[in-house]
């Protein structure tokens, strides 16, 4: 089967008013700096919320009703204190992973991180097969993937210097479904890998074993 999807992606469809959004939006933060720089904390909050409702022993990661915008914003604000953007935002995977682990410790939940770095230099990048295997493996284990994109290359539907959340992936077409700013889009991950000029990285969070 080439299409791999989270088992309950609807957990990341957040109720707002009479409808819902595909994931959260950094624009839900309360001040302008948070709204401009908050994509990393927002993506991290989505991974933590999903774990809190799909893994035994992880519910303490989110005591709020993250299925509603108001509850999810409360989680985002707390995560901001641990995954805190600097002058250049959350521009490395380590800022997100270290913050997520500390957040988990504060909540009494030990977390491990799966990470795949994609360097800016072309000859240092992992092969497409490794990128594909990372995304497919995380989703097959029912783990959403936070994707850091520092340069969108030739992709027109992806912002540079930005985090999004991947919820499904097709291993044949290399198309991933992303949730970003409350909407959803398809991304050609193989094309991104070939054409990005600055690289980025991928992160999945899971309970520590």
Task: Supply the key terms.
single chain; 209 residues; alpha+beta; Cathepsin B, Chain A; seven-stranded antiparallel beta sheet; two-stranded antiparallel ribbon; 6 helices; 9 strands; 33% helix; globular
Mean pLDDT across every amino acid position: 96
Secondary structure category = alpha+beta
SSE ordering: EEEHHHHEHEEEEHE
Reported for the largest beta sheet, the result is: 7 strands, antiparallel
Instruction: Tell me roughly what share of residues is in helical segments.
Output: 25-40%
By CATH reckoning, the class would read: Alpha Beta
User: Which range does the strand content fall in?
Assistant: 25-35%
Examine the secondary-structure arrangement and name the CATH architecture: Alpha-Beta Complex
Instruction: Note poorly predicted spans.
Output: none
CATH topology: Cathepsin B, Chain A
As a whole number of angstroms, the C-alpha radius of gyration is 16 Å
How would you summarize what this structure contains?
This protein has 209 residues and is an alpha+beta fold. Helices cover 33% and strands 25% of the residues.
Describe this structure in words.
With 209 residues, the protein is α+β, with helices and mostly antiparallel strands. The protein contains 6 helices and 9 strands; from the N terminus they run E-E-E-H-H-H-H-E-H-E-E-E-E-H-E. It has one domain (3-207): Cathepsin B, Chain A (Alpha-Beta Complex). Strands 1, 4, 5, 6, 7, 8 and 9 form a 7-stranded antiparallel β-sheet that branches. A two-stranded antiparallel sheet has the order 2-3. Strand 2 (13-16) and strand 3 form a beta hairpin. The mean pLDDT is 96.
């Amino acid at each position: 089967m080439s299409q791999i999807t989270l088992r309950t992606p609807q957990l990341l469809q957040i109720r707002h008013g009479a409808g819902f959004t595909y994931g959260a939006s950094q624009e839900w933060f309360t001040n302008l700096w948070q709204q401009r720089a908050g994509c990393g904390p927002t993506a991290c909050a989505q991974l933590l919320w999903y774990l809190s409702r799909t893994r035994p022993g992880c519910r303490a990661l989110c005591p709020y009703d993250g299925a509603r915008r108001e509850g999810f914003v409360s989680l985002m604000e707390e995560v901001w204190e641990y995954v805190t953007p600097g002058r250049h935002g959350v521009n490395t995977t380590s800022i997100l992973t270290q913050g997520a682990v500390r957040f988990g410790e504060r909540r009494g939940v030990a977390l491990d991180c799966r990470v795949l770095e994609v360097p800016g230099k072309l000859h240092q990048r992992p092969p497409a097969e490794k990128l594909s295997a990372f995304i497919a493996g995380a989703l097959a284990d029912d783990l959403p993937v936070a994707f850091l994109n520092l340069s969108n290359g030739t992709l027109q539907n992806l912002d540079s210097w930005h985090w999004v959340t991947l919820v499904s992936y097709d291993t044949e077409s290399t198309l991933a479904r992303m949730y970003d700013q409350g909407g959803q889009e398809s991304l050609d991950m193989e094309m991104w890998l070939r054409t990005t000029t600055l690289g980025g990285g991928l992160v999945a969070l899971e309970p520590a074993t």
